[in-house]
Design goal:
The protein is of the alpha/beta class. The chain has 2 domains: 4-89; 121-258 and 318-401, 3-Layer(aba) Sandwich (Rossmann fold), CATH 3.40.50. The chain has 13 helices and 10 strands. Strand 4 and strand 5 (166-167) form a beta hairpin.
């Protein structure tokens, strides 16, 4: 069977909408560059703003109109073929591709009702859970009194907790008797939007769990740690019961104070905007999702981004959010350096997240997170993804959860 035959009508519809939107936006970009080149601006500054006229303008407008007509036709053919909710089957490859697409432009997919947008849900073995006690009992034949929820990172899905034959959740079920449930979410949305949705799901899950719970923990990777901290905040604010029942929260490579790559991307965007000839190209830098721009400093709350241009260069303006109260929190950082160090200060990060950010350290004491020394661990000679499968990482998780 070839790859094309594996595409579902939902995928075709979503991809066609993306292609159409891309054609229109590329037309806008080319027209803007046309204006900049044919206008008379100086070396820097803003060129005169007008829509291209004459034959060129007619061409650009014709492309937009024809593209729109084609899009309506494709929608009309494919929409009746779309599956009912839960009907589409997700292969691991398709799941991974959707996860990357949602991480990069997931906010745009959601805003345009594109069927490729991932809906937040709790899953087990790649299948969505219905948060109703009889349904949970049927989906989980032997639910444990010990529950762990695993939360994936940016551009990933719950299935990608399995790496090189190892899955932390599966191993915890085998070794410590936990029932593992995974959050599956659109990582391109604002962290606060995912945090609020996650908080509501956890409350429903615990209210409907088929057996009494003795232990409840979370294990999070990368962006998933920020989503979980946001969920703790919004769950507490909403008066949910689950934040008081959460016993342990483990962060693997979480950028508590942001990731340098997003700050570099923001600077590149600013540089492109300094010249009228390159300013249209700055639009390409604005393709990246809200989930990515939230990583600049580690935004957790709506107030951190509402009323602001998220692409504008600005300092760290987020509201400080402490670790959740009465929850034992643990942080694991990775470093590509092989040689060990007692404190880990000045070490390179795991390729994406600095050690200090992963351990909650900040030059401003008020922003530092209060991880106890015994609750911090550094994995040497490993990158960001190694945190998902290295046995030394898993053994440390077991020590904290046991």
């Amino acid at each position: 069977m070839n790859q094309t035959s594996r595409l579902h009508p939902t995928d075709l519809l979503g991809l066609s909408r993306l292609a159409i939107d891309g054609t229109v936006r590329l037309t806008d970009l080319i027209e803007a560059m046309h204006d900049a080149i044919t206008g008379t601006p100086g070396i820097s500054g803003t060129p005169a703003q007008w829509t291209t006229s004459g034959i060129a303008g007619l061409v650009y407008n014709s492309i937009r109109k024809v593209t729109g007509v084609v899009g309506c036709g494709i929608d009309g053919v494919l929409t009746p073929l779309m599956p009912m909710p839960g009907e589409a089957r997700l292969t691991s490859g398709r799941d991974a591709a959707l996860a990357v697409l949602n991480g990069v432009i997931g906010d745009y997919l959601a805003a345009t009702d594109n069927p490729l947008a991932i809906s937040v849900r709790l899953r087990r073995n790649g299948r969505p859970l219905t948060l109703d006690m009889p349904e949970l009992a049927a989906s989980i034949p032997h639910p444990s009194r010990k529950l762990v929820i695993l939360v994936h990172g940016l551009c990933m899905s719950d299935r990608q907790w399995t790496r090189k034959g190892h899955n932390h959740g599966t191993a915890l079920a085998r070794d410590l008797g936990y029932t593992a449930v995974h959050l599956h979410y659109n990582s391109g949305l604002h962290i606060s939007a995912n945090g609020r949705a996650f908080a509501n799901l956890v409350e429903d899950l615990l209210n409907q769990w088929p057996v009494p719970l003795d232990e409840f923990a979370m294990v999070t990777h990368s962006l998933g740690g920020l989503v979980s901290r946001s969920a703790c905040h919004y769950g507490t604010a909403a008066g949910h019961r689950w934040p008081q029942r959460l016993g342990k929260l483990i962060f693997l490579g979480t950028p508590h104070h942001g990731a340098p790559l997003e700050r570099v991307g923001n600077w590149v965007n600013i540089v492109l905007q300094t010249s009228p000839y390159t300013s249209p190209l700055a639009r390409l830098g604005k393709i990246r999702s809200a989930g990515i721009t939230d990583l600049r400093y580690g935004n957790l709350l709506d107030e951190d981004w509402q009323g602001r241009d998220r692409f504008e260069h600005a300092g760290d303006q987020r509201r400080s959010v402490p670790l959740p109260q009465n929850v034992r929190c643990y942080a694991i950082a990775g470093t590509t350096r092989a040689k060990s160090s007692d404190l880990g200060y000045g070490l390179p990060g795991d390729g994406l997240v600095p050690v200090d950010s992963a351990l909650g350290r900040h030059k401003e004491p008020g922003r530092s997170l209060s991880f106890a020394e015994s609750s911090q661990w550094i994995g040497y000679g490993m990158n960001h993804w190694d945190l998902l499968n290295r046995q030394t990482v898993y053994k440390q998780i077991v020590r904290w959860l046991a």
